[in-house]
């Protein structure tokens, strides 16, 4: 890994990570403060929600509003967090290679006396660090805001939740990097990354509508994404976390092979 490239990639991402992290932390703090009012009316709201189709509620991460983890899952962790995080990861991941070609700086980038794959690994480390930071600030914000809402989440449960969040980001970053490695335009790489992410989400929704199409859930990242359960139990599903991280790792390895062999002339 090139430390020079890692430093440059980290500096390139620092403001994007800062603003996304700040926004996601602020959103978490805001949502947590609504819990006391929600708790006082949770049973009534649960009865109201049960009047809607179950598949629709699951699609938006609404499963249980009578507990603090259930409330956080419904209002933030299950749907809004991966949506916002996907915007960050698709934007940053699609830029790893394709943006260098788009801007005409790829020759300058590759003039560094290092193997291509080492340069790309440095950029990927910076991207994955950004994913970890965003996941971490989310759970830290929840931990800081919870006492003011009359709750004290288990630190191990928060750590488990952060791990699940980060694993999701790694999976999305993996295939976005792969698309960036073989496409020469950032807009195309970002569009393909966004399309795959959306298709994954839609597969999860459709799979819950009928048993005839329930196998579609195996094509969805959200099938292995359960931060609410991690917050409730205090431990993540290691199988699901491993699956998400595995997707990211396989895609990264493929990206390294593609980038090492392709012609990157603009």
Oligomer: single chain
Largest sheet: none
Alpha carbon gap, first and last residue: 24 Å
Low-confidence stretches: none
**Outline type:** globular
Class by helix and strand content? Answer: mainly alpha
pLDDT averaged over residues = 84
Radius of gyration: 20 Å
Keywords, separated by commas or semicolons:
266 residues; mainly alpha; 74% helix; 0% strand
Describe the protein's topology.
Elements: H1 3-32, H2 35-40, H3 42-49, H4 54-59, H5 68-77, H6 80-93, H7 98-103, H8 106-110, H9 116-145, H10 155-182, H11 186-207, H12 227-233, H13 238-261
Helix pairs in contact: 1-6, 1-9, 5-12, 6-9, 6-10, 6-11, 9-10, 9-13, 10-11, 10-12, 10-13
Would you kindly provide a written description of the structure presented here, covering whatever features stand out?
It is a single chain. The protein contains 13 helices and no strands. It is mainly α. The chain has one domain (3-261). The longest helix has 30 residues, at 3-32. The mean pLDDT is 84.
């Amino acid at each position: 890994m090139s430390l020079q490239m890692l430093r440059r990639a980290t500096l390139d991402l620092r403001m994007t990570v800062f603003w996304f992290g700040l926004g996601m932390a602020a959103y978490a703090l805001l949502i947590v403060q609504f819990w006391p009012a929600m708790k006082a009316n949770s049973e009534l709201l649960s009865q109201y929600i049960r009047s809607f189709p179950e598949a629709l509620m699951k699609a938006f991460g609404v499963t249980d509003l009578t507990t603090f983890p259930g409330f956080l899952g419904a209002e933030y962790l299950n749907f809004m967090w991966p949506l916002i995080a996907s915007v960050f990861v698709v934007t940053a991941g699609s830029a790893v290679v394709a943006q260098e070609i788009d801007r005409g700086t790829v020759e300058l980038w590759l003039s560094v006396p290092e193997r291509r794959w080492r340069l790309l690994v440095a950029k990927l480390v910076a991207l994955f660090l950004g994913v970890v930071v965003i996941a971490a600030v989310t759970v830290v914000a929840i931990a800081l805001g919870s006492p003011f809402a009359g709750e004290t989440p288990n630190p191990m449960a928060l750590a488990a939740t952060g791990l699940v969040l980060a694993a999701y980001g790694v999976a999305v970053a993996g295939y976005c990097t792969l698309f960036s490695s073989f496409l020469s335009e950032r807009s195309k790489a970002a569009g393909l990354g966004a399309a795959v992410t959306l298709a994954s989400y839609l597969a999860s929704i459709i799979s819950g509508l009928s048993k005839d199409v329930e196998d579609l859930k195996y094509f969805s990242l959200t099938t292995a994404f359960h931060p609410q359960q991690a917050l409730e139990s205090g431990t993540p599903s290691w199988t699901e976390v491993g699956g998400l991280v595995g997707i990211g790792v396989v895609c990264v390895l493929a990206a390294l092979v593609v980038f090492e062999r392709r012609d990157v002339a603009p």
